[in-house]
Design a protein that fits this description.
Number of helices: 0
Shape: globular
Helix content: under 10%
Number of strands: 11
Largest sheet: 7 strands, mixed
Radius of gyration: 13 Å
Order of helices and strands: EEEEEEEEEEE
């Protein structure tokens, strides 16, 4: 079955950085786009990054463009999200997403 396991979250000060990882299994990773989605403390869901199968095209909403970078390692079935220049409004639970499947999420808290 599909499994997505996120890690790498934590508490940082504004301007800080984190690297999130998502280990995947149970599907043919190389054939699918991958996504990161976050849920804010207000329970709002926001898509924050997408990457195509080959890892050559990445897409972001304006809210994170230039600060977040998605990448993937097709040999390891892993997808990553590099977060930089973090802001308090980036505080959320970050999820790896694949065709309706979610991991358990990893908490990112940005606070001074």
């Amino acid at each position: 079955q599909v499994q997505l396991v996120e890690s790498g979250g934590g508490s940082v000060q504004p301007g800080g950085s984190l690297r999130l990882s998502c280990r995947t299994s149970g599907f043919t990773f190389t054939k699918h786009w991958m996504f990161w989605v976050r849920q804010t403390p207000q329970k709002e869901l926001e898509w924050v990054a997408a990457i195509n199968t080959g890892g050559t095209n990445m897409y972001y909403p304006e809210s994170v463009k230039g600060r977040f970078t998605i990448s993937r390692d097709n040999a390891k079935n892993m997808v990553y999200l590099q977060l930089t220049s973090l802001k308090p409004e980036d505080t959320a639970v970050y999820y790896c997403w694949h065709r309706g499947y979610w991991g358990q999420g990893t908490q990112v808290t940005v606070s001074s």
